[in-house]
C-alpha cells in the first residue's frame, strides 16, 4: 500500500487522494486570451523528473502541494499551499 503524507491529516492511503495537475504560473486574469487560458488549464508539461503538483485529500476536501518524481513516483515532500501562495486572486466579471 502506498502512503501519501497529507499536511493536514497525516499519512493516508494514496487511494484517498486525487492529483490536480502541475503547479504553474497563472496567466494574468484580465489580459490573457482564450488560448493562454486553455494552455494553463488543460496542457501539462509531462516532465520526466521532479514536478510540483496540486493534490486533493478527497475525504477532507483539503488541497495541498506535493513534490514528486515522475519516473519513480516517489513523493519527496508535501506542504500547505500557503507556503507558495500568500494572497487570493480576484477576478473581475467581464460584461461583454
Automatic annotation (TrEMBL):
Its EC number is 1.5.3.1. Keywords: Oxidoreductase. It is an enzyme of class 1 (oxidoreductase). The keyword DNA damage does not apply. GO terms for biological process: tetrahydrofolate metabolic process. GO terms for molecular function: sarcosine oxidase activity. The keyword Transmembrane helix does not apply. InterPro entries: SoxD, SoxD_sf. This is Sarcosine oxidase subunit delta. It comes from Methylohalomonas lacus.
